[in-house]
Design a protein that fits this description.
The complex is a heterodimer of chains A (75) and B (518).
Chain A lengths: L6 H14 L3 H25 L3 H5 L3 H14 L2
Chain B lengths: L6 H18 L3 H21 L2 H21 L2 H11 L2 H35 L6 H30 L4 E4 L4 E4 L2 H5 L2 H31 L4 H36 L1 H7 L11 E14 L2 E12 L2 H7 L9 H6 L9 H23 L3 H12 L1 H6 L19 H31 L6 H27 L4 E3 L3 E2 H4 L5 H32 L4
Antiparallel strand pairs in B: 1-2, 3-4, 5-6
Helix pairs in contact in B: 1-4, 1-19, 2-3, 2-6, 2-8, 3-9, 3-19, 5-6, 6-8, 8-9, 8-17, 9-10, 9-16, 13-14, 16-17
The chains are: A mainly alpha (75), B mainly alpha (518).
Chain lengths: 75, 518
């Protein structure tokens, strides 16, 4: 690390060196982590888990009216 | 409309949430506990300057890293489910959950991106003391992160510090401190983190025992057992203490859950504590719901009364008291609560109607009634009962509540014995000759996971039929979506989680077999 380098550069180097010198288990874990996050956010969240009230209604007034209706009529 | 609520949808949504939560909880307690064990071990290294302790710390840090990376973000799936499968519930609680979950998110992000990086990448790059500080901050931060999730969960068990706004159909926080210092939250937090410490201690002790059995890494194994025997014994005693405090609070705020986990059908003074029991179906029924009796039990006379109220003569109400009521003991019947819930609901209907009619005077008047403590304390607090069809529907599954509680407690006592025995054998200096103990410690690892999951099963199944105690039923909380899509995602999760678990276990086992770097 150069003494004169900025804090951001030093921070970047810290993470860069950390990842570059990672051992075998670390690399495997990171691969699994990235695949997992991809499945979670790019597949599950996008295609299977929409925020229902956000998707079905345009504003909070409609959302609260819908939920109120559900609360009043629940059995 | 929920009149046509599909029970298949409710059941699958519950099963999906349970699957996700159980899977998520396989990783969390080890993170909570192992982070502190690492901090203790590294403190010894910094204090003594002995390189062996650095090696020990780095080895367990590797296992911590694998567990953390595979487990991280699995909890976010629960939040996906809130928005899709439990949208009514999410809206209803929104303002209460917002603050704690936001703090948790910020804490987790700050911690994960900063101090965990220093912990793993910072050896020989930052000073010893700064590295140690980072390890302690990871431990403290991850446990504080858990606090906010548990505060949110505790609110569902005992909703406090809020007021329902009939305009928005949401609960709004009126006292952050009341939500934070909810007695259920405080006890749940202490009980949960100490059970995490216990689990992690057994994890380290069991793997160390395996090394001794294989006659490998003896220095690492014995030192690790010493640290975890002390930490585990203290933690398991704390688990017992906080568990007892939780049970007493439960008797007050969730009395039906309390009676169910003790399978106490009829209330009585001088109530005995069942140490071990086998349930059978009773001939006694409430409505069409058969109750339970004991086929066999070992009972300590009077102890349940003493633990609940500090006196043998204290009356402990049973399931029947809470369903049919007991005027002498001041216990309302479920029917009375259903009536009060319906009054609260009717007021909400009138309010909606007045709003639709643009009747400002009536709207304001009803809003004032709603805001009044008389209405909140005597009627709105039973709002959820308006959706209960029969009084006996407020009884949770007694078998699951009873067995999960009793098995958890029995395992808890077994762990105290194991940690105590480890200390005894270490001081006698013959731990490696007691192979039976080493095998016991190794085989106890899965039992700690079982006990930890049983605690959550009791907490969540015992709360049924409520998602928020007395305020909202599970069937009223579920989103009206096609049950087929819930089944599809359930299967997807089951496959994904199984694959991740296999990956996690195989990387962990490989690292354990490889052992620490020399």
């Amino acid at each position: 690390m150069k003494n004169g380098s900025s804090i951001l550069t030093r921070l970047f180097r810290f993470y860069y060196d950390g990842f570059r010198n990672m051992s075998g288990w670390g690399r495997n874990v990171w691969i699994i982590l990235i695949i997992k996050l991809f499945i979670m956010f790019a597949i599950l969240k996008l295609f299977f888990f929409p925020d229902l009230l956000q998707k079905r209604f345009d504003n909070d007034k409609q959302r609260s009216e819908y939920v109120m209706d559900q609360l009043i009529n629940s059995r | 409309m929920i009149e046509n609520v599909d029970l298949t949808l409710v059941d699958w949504s519950r099963a999906q949430f349970a699957l996700t939560a159980i899977y998520h909880w396989l990783f969390v307690p080890l993170t909570l506990g192992l982070s502190f064990i690492l901090a203790i071990m590294e403190s010894i290294y910094v204090k003594t300057g002995r390189e062996e302790w650095k090696r020990i710390t780095r080895f367990w840090m590797t296992l911590f890293g694998i567990n953390f990376a595979i487990g991280v973000a699995t909890g976010i799936i629960l939040e996906f489910e809130f928005g899709t499968n439990w949208s009514n519930y999410s809206w209803f609680v929104g303002d209460i959950f917002g603050a704690p979950l936001a703090i948790e998110g910020i804490l987790a992000f700050f911690l994960e991106s900063t101090f965990i990086a220093v912990m793993f990448f910072g050896w020989n790059k930052v000073s010893r003391k700064f590295h140690l500080l980072s390890t302690w901050l990871v431990a403290i931060g991850s446990n504080l992160s858990a606090l906010w999730i548990l505060v949110a969960n505790a609110w569902m068990q005992n909703p406090v510090g809020m007021k329902f706004n009939p305009e928005t159909a949401r609960n709004e926080m009126v006292s952050f401190w009341e939500v934070l210092f909810n007695p259920v939250a405080v006890e749940k937090f202490l009980h949960t983190i100490s059970s995490g410490f216990l689990l992690a201690s057994m994890f380290v002790m069991g793997i160390s025992a395996w090394y001794i059995l294989r006659k490998r890494e003896l220095f690492l194994a014995k030192r690790s057992i010493l640290v975890t025997a002390v930490f585990g014994l203290l933690s398991s005693l704390m688990v017992a203490y906080t568990g007892d405090a939780s049970a007493r609070t439960l008797a007050r705020v969730q009395p039906v859950k309390f009676a169910s986990m003790e399978a106490l059908t009829d209330g009585r003074g001088n109530a005995g504590l069942v140490a071990f029991g086998v349930l059978k179906e009773s001939e006694k029924k409430i409505g069409d719901r058969a109750l339970n009796d004991f086929a066999f039990k070992i009972e300590i006379p009077g102890l349940l009364s003493v633990l609940t109220g500090g006196d043998r003569e204290i009356y402990v109400p049973g399931i029947v008291d809470h369903v049919t009521g007991n005027a002498e003991k001041g216990i309302l019947s479920a029917s009375e609560k259903i009536d009060r819930g319906k009054i609260a609901r009717n007021l909400l209907i009138q309010f909606q109607q007045a709003k639709a009619d643009n009747d400002k005077k009536k709207t304001d008047s009803l809003k004032n009634i709603f805001a009044g403590s008389q209405f909140q304390d005597n009627y709105f607090r039973y709002f959820g009962y308006a959706s209960v069809n029969k009084p006996e529907d407020v009884i949770p599954n007694i078998h699951i509540s009873f067995y999960s509680f009793h098995l958890m407690v029995m395992l808890g006592f077994l762990f105290i014995i194991i940690f105590g025995m480890a200390l005894y054998l270490l001081f006698k200096g013959n731990i490696e000759r007691n192979r039976w103990f080493l095998w016991t410690a190794l085989l106890a690892i899965p039992l700690t996971y079982l006990a930890s999951e049983l605690g959550w099963i009791l907490a969540e199944v015992g709360r049924q039929p409520w998602i928020i105690q007395d305020l909202m039923s599970v069937s009223g909380a579920v989103s009206q979506i096609v049950s087929g899509s819930v089944i599809t995602t359930f299967i997807l999760f089951a496959v994904l989680f199984t694959l991740l678990l296999i990956a996690d276990a195989s990387i962990l086992v490989k690292q354990i077999k490889t052992g620490p770097k020399h």
